[in-house]
Amino acid sequence: MQVTATSLRRLVARIMVLGLFALFFSACHLDMYDQPKNKALTASDFFANGSSARPLIDGTVSRGGLKIDARTTGREGGDPTAAYVTTNPISIDANVLARGEARYKIYCASCHGEKGNGKGPAAGPISKGGLGLKMPALFYVDQLKGKVVANESFTLDQAPDGYYFNAISHGVPNLKYDPTKPETADNPKYTMFPAGFRIQIVDDRWAIIAYIREMQKNPPAQK
Amino acid sequence: MAQVFNRRTNTIVRLGIFVGIPVILALLTATWWYYTRSDWVRDVGVAHAKVQPAGNIPGAGGYSHQLHVGGLKLDCRYCHTGVEISSNANIPPTETCMGCHAQILPKSPKLEYIRNSYEKDEPVQWNKVNDLPKFVYFNHSIHVAKGVGCSTCHGNIASMAVVYKTEALYMSWCLNCHRAPEKFLRPQSEIFNTAWTPPADQIAQGLKLKKDLNIRTSSQLTNCSICHR
User: Options 1.10.760, 1.20.120, 3.30.70, 3.40.720; which CATH number does A70-217 get?
Assistant: First the structure.
């Protein structure tokens, strides 16, 4: 092909236009913004389920979490078949009670109520915009009398601290749960789901229990 | 020999000098401004809100903070459990949803995605709203411990049906506070109050909080390695 003045001019023009585009694109490099590494909650196209976080292998123990005793299990000596502990294993002072109250209001009050009457905003009757859950009135021992605790020899008003701890940590198992069937609304595994994975600091659970006990001694007036 | 450039070229060159170059400079300035200052390019505002969770079944609606936080008064920490003890506030696992929704609306088609996630043990996929560059190491726990409330950065989440970004998260915006934290600090009791507004004497209160909470000086807070490692 013969190189004419016109084709040369066109070539020069094309190179100039491309150069102009290159100038624009050079401003948008994002290589350091999106580095090839994972931080918490980063999505991953490497793993099939799209999550960069890997599920815990059964039996995983968190650092410092290996200790198995009354404080971490709510049972005497940490033995899973032993009786529930009846006294709070942490020492209770005003700070612990304040911590317990604050934690209770975060994790418990939405259903059990700020006054512990089982009438939190999430639990109320459907007709009043609530969601129709039946919740024990934790702060009023007389209202807990005679309430049967599944699989236990005591009623709810007699429940020891260790029972509360296990209900918080591991949930209240549904005794009618059929493990051969899928876990559905008709076949729930728990009547109360565990909250322990949310209340991660073990002593916070005991602080909540200490606060509930304190309120049971002197329950707030019901309107 | 024929001339390489014909007479018309003079006009083109003049146009290039007096119109072309200013236009290109203006475009470059506009582009620079757009990519470094604009809220729009950083997806700020309700117009950019994406229905959550990302993987939800189309047409099933989405999670509403307005309902759960504004209506049912759930505390931020009910789900975002890590916010006081870790750099990440954390997105709750499916078990947190099911803790209530095993009993509340247990058969609602709106929650089918959540139930599937629970039954098949597959993570719920959420849209990341505030995505910091990988070279920024933001830590939630230190901010909530030192008087920076949720709504300072996230806005009034309790009023949002679909959560959207309220700040563009430019570094200059971070520095606004790191240079003068007293403008934004609030008492510990108000950290999780999403509707908090600064009092009239915010600067005086902020300076007192800065002293009480033992907050570092602005020259320390603007050290590069405070945020970049």
Answer: 1.10.760
